[in-house]
Design goal:
Blueprint: H1 14-22, H2 30-46, E1 50-56, E2 80-82, E3 89-91, E4 104-110, H3 117-126, H4 139-147, E5 157-160, E6 183-185, H5 188-194, H6 200-204, H7 218-238, H8 242-258, H9 273-279, H10 283-296, E7 301-306, H11 322-346, E8 353-359, E9 362-363, E10 375-376, E11 380-386, E12 393-395, E13 397-398, E14 405-407, H12 412-422, E15 430-432, E16 438-440
Parallel strand pairs: 1-7, 1-8, 4-12, 5-6, 5-7
Antiparallel strand pairs: 2-3, 4-11, 8-11, 9-10, 13-14, 15-16
Helix pairs in contact: 7-8, 10-11
């Protein structure tokens, strides 16, 4: 299956190898080739799933992206376009993604009751409404807990360019503890300052201080680290609270990165210029490239945000000039996401990498007096693609005016249960919470969407 022109040669499938062998193309060199194929097959069966979350900060309009309403006044000026799957249409500003709908399940019937950015983000990212007593973990944290390796040099949860100001807890590990908190790349404060420069994203994506200071010899460095570790362990032994453990965890992560070749994952300069251009020379595009490099090295969960530091706040929060802003955001989203799909496909990683697209809610179908759309949780869309997903289908539907769910309503917990199922995680497994009560990963009453994973 081909999806556009790629800079890499396609990876041969097992079927391709068999054809070549039967035609005698491999000749006397068949044995080493088959040995390599056998090793690759073994590696593939052992490979765990990864997830890349494309988080749309601010709440994107379903009508202007994945659920167009042509011919209705609520539909706005954007035209729908046909896609690789004849029954599915998308917004005209997603032309590259239109060629990947055969690998996507588009959920058009998402619904919730949370219309506030902070509460909505918390709900969609944890599966629970905020409450005073229990500190629920975000999706990336419980994937880190279930699929991550404690000894890994790379973090098990990486967040690129998040905009966390609306609700810090929505991005936190909660009762799972700081070892499952996200490793932040593209800090919102520094990235907002840097994005004024044409290549500001380059600095934002740098992981700094991974080398010893000038003049520090390896033995000196090791002695200093051992001294620090001893002091931290002694301090933590008498003060085992979250801030102390978080500080200790941060240092341990940094030391593991410094002591390994794993830090090269963050060196985007290793990638071909043409491929980097294809992703888009911006924080989101290069963040998607970084996500591919990380899952390629076994990181189980990476999220890349579009809307926060990429657009000076919550970019999809389009109360004013919705159509102008959405067109610009789609101009960033479309090439980055489509290239990510193709890059993963060409490297044999798409079947083991789940891609999720979602935001905290949708936007009003009715266009307001400033050509904008306001907060609207009653109907919105989410997209699942890649690993484990039966593509080429739409789940649920909204009414002709986009204001209500008409078929197969999908709650946030049901979506998260489906994500878990696609990744081979039991959504009803429990963890001990900060109040001592066992808590399911996803609400026990929520079941995965039928027919989406397979």
């Amino acid at each position: 299956m081909q999806h556009g022109n790629r800079s890499r040669a396609p990876i041969l499938s097992r079927r391709d190898w068999t054809k070549l062998a039967s035609l005698g193309v491999l000749g006397g060199s068949l044995s080493p080739w088959m040995s390599a194929l056998a090793a690759d097959a073994a590696a593939q069966t052992q490979r765990k799933k990864s997830c890349i979350l494309l988080w749309m900060s601010g709440g994107p309009s379903h009508l202007d992206t994945f659920d167009p309403k042509p011919g209705h006044e609520n539909g706005g000026p954007f035209k729908p376009i046909d896609t690789k799957v004849s029954a599915i249409q998308l917004c005209e500003h997603l032309p590259k993604l239109s060629q990947w709908t055969d690998r996507m399940a588009i959920v058009r019937s998402m619904t919730s009751k949370e219309a506030d950015h902070g509460r909505g983000s918390y709900l969609v990212r944890t599966g629970r409404a905020p409450e005073a007593t229990i500190q629920y973990p975000t999706l990336g944290s419980f994937v880190s807990k279930e699929l991550g390796k404690e000894s890994s040099a790379l973090p098990n949860f990486v967040s690129v360019g998040p905009y966390r100001s609306t609700n810090l807890a929505a991005y936190d590990a909660g009762f799972l503890g700081p070892q499952h908190a996200p490793f932040i790349v593209g800090d919102v404060t520094s990235a907002l300052a840097q994005q004024q420069a044409p290549d500001g994203y380059v600095s934002a994506l740098k992981v700094t201080d991974l080398r010893p200071a000038a003049g520090v010899q390896p033995r000196q460095e090791q002695s200093r680290l051992e001294l620090l570790r001893g002091l931290e362990q002694s301090f933590a032994a008498t003060r085992p609270d979250v801030p102390v453990l978080s500080h200790q965890t941060a240092y341990e992560r940094a030391v593991r990165l410094m002591d390994s070749a794993a830090a090269s994952a963050f060196n985007l300069e290793d990638e071909p210029t043409k491929l980097r251009d294809s992703y888009g020379r911006n924080l989101f595009g290069q963040g998607c490239l970084l996500a591919r490099r990380l899952v390629e090295r076994g990181v189980p969960f990476v999220e890349v945000s579009l809307g926060g530091v990429n657009s000076g706040g919550m970019g999809w929060d389009t109360h004013v000039n919705n159509f102008e802003i959405v067109k610009r955001l789609c101009g960033v989203l479309d090439p980055a996401w489509a290239t990510l799909q193709g890059d993963l496909h060409d490297r044999g990683l798409l079947d083991s990498t789940l891609i999720v697209w979602m935001g905290e809610f949708g936007r009003t179908p009715k266009i307001n007096g400033t050509a904008g759309r306001d907060h609207y949780p009653l109907t919105f869309s989410a997209v699942l693609g890649g690993g484990g997903i039966r593509g080429g289908q739409v789940i649920g539907a909204t009414t002709a005016d986009g204001t209500a769910v008409a078929d197969r309503p999908c709650s946030v917990p049901e979506l998260l249960a489906t994500i878990c199922q696609a990744m081979g995680i039991d959504p009803h497994k429990t963890n001990a919470s900060n109040v001592g009560r066992p808590i399911h990963l996803v609400d026990y009453n929520a079941q995965p969407l039928e027919g989406v994973v397979g």
